[in-house]
């Protein structure tokens, strides 16, 4: 008879991923807040808008995996600061499109190099090949979890 597995939290991959993610996010959030007055959801929206241009809040939620309330709050804060503008969505009258303003783009252009420098510092002890392997493994984990969440995919 096989002995049943025992849950050990420190060896439980979902827990370790969450702890690692929270730790990295906390470091980055502190830097963004101190340097640019941005929280993590705001930074994610700014980055997606910089990469994709004008998109709806629904698309922002899908791209960042943040819930619609978090996206909405972040968007409102960015609009109030003049970093993002809202415009009617010609394809869906019930939604708006969000895009970076010139000031938002300038902020992104300042923040992006800092984000890359933080990433470099966090990954300094990993080789290029290890980072590539890690990214591949994270993608595979996300795909596998996605299949469990939606078995029809």
* Cα-to-Cα separation, first versus last residue: 36 Å
Order of helices and strands: HHEHHEEHH
CATH topology: Arc Repressor Mutant, subunit A
Question: How many DSSP E strands?
Answer: 3
CATH architecture classification name: Orthogonal Bundle
**Rg calc:** 19 Å
**How many structural domains in the coordinates?**
1
Major sheet size, sense and barrel closure = 3 strands, antiparallel
Principal-axis shape equals: globular
Structural class from helices and strands?
mainly alpha
Proportion of β residues?
A: 5-15%
CATH class: Mainly Alpha
Quick check: average pLDDT?
Answer: 92
Question: What spatial order of strands do you see in the largest sheet?
Answer: 1-3-2
Determine the number of helices (DSSP H or I, runs of at least 4 residues): 6
Low-confidence parts: none
As a percent range, the share of helical residues equals: 55-70%
**CATH superfamily heading:** Winged helix-like DNA-binding domain superfamily/Winged helix DNA-binding domain
Organism: Phenylobacterium hankyongense
Domain HTH marR-type: 1-143
Protein name: MarR family transcriptional regulator
InterPro entries: HTH_MarR-typ (IPR000835), Metal_resp_HTH_trans_reg (IPR052067), Tscrpt_reg_MarR-type_CS (IPR023187), WH-like_DNA-bd_sf (IPR036388), WH_DNA-bd_sf (IPR036390)
């Amino acid at each position: 008879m096989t002995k049943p597995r025992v849950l050990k939290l420190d060896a439980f991959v979902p827990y370790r991923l969450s702890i690692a993610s929270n730790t990295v996010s906390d470091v980055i959030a502190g830097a963004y807040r101190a340097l640019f007055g941005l929280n993590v959801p705001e930074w994610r929206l700014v980055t997606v808008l910089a990469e994709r241009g004008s998109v709806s809040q629904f698309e922002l939620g899908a791209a960042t995996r943040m819930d619609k309330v978090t996206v909405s709050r972040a968007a409102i804060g960015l609009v109030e600061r003049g970093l993002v503008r809202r415009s009617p969505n010609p394809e869906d009258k019930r939604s708006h499109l969000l895009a970076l303003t010139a000031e938002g783009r300038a902020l992104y252009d300042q923040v992006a190099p800092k984000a890359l420098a933080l990433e470099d510092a966090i990954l300094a002890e990993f080789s290029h090949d290890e980072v590539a392997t890690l990214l591949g493994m994270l993608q595979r984990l996300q795909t596998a979890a996605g299949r469990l969440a939606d078995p029809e995919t």
